[in-house]
Amino acid sequence: MRIGNAALGAAVGVVLLVPASLPAAAYPQERKSLAIRGGSPDPVSQEGPVSAAALLARTATCQQVSLGKYRTDGGAPANVPVCGKRGAVFWKADMDIDCDGRPSRACNRRTDPLFQNTTAFQESGGRQLSAEGLPYVVVPGASRIWSHTRHGITGGSVAAVIHGGKVLYAVVGDTGPTDLIGEASYAAAKSLGINPDPRSGGTDAGVTYIVFTGPKASPIESHRAAVARGDALARQFLGQN
Prior knowledge:
Blueprint: H1 5-11, E1 36-37, E2 40-41, H2 52-58, E3 83-85, E4 88-98, E5 136-140, E6 158-163, E7 166-176, E8 183-185, H3 186-191, E9 203-212, H4 223-240
Parallel strand pairs: 4-8, 5-7
Antiparallel strand pairs: 1-2, 3-4, 4-9, 6-7, 6-9
């Protein structure tokens, strides 16, 4: 999770040893197109039959539902609105890497000086989400600019994340600063072929996030559930808009 500059100064230099036993992958053998290696997914080519082009065509115009606009990074101009369509909200931004949640080989205080061992939403059994194992997106914390809860969006809500002609279905797994937008988990970035390193990774632009306001994926930690629910909601989204 991204934090302000003051907190960044305090966070740098803090070291936490990685646990000797690493957590198991969040969704082993759930999808042939995502082989699990080292606890994190390989890049996808396409999840489900709904194409990136079809989804992008429906998000070509924006009916703004946020009261203001977001920055993609601290110091950047506030120029990203949250837009609304029937059945979804969406925004077009960058992708910063969220490595928070359950510590793993890739996500811990040694690899990420901003690491936090909690996520806003938890697994069905109460454990923190695994940023390395589960593709999830980060929504801004509720503020006067926009509140995700007013659209029925919460942990487990499904998002279609589009980059480079690829569609990845992810869940809403964490919340971030109230003035920044454009962030997803280590696993989401890696799945889309984006450098997932929490220090140097991410991409500066070209990512579309479509968060569906319909039924959630259950359980939240099952990527297979997110893909099945996301495919149905994406089809519905195309039919409604």
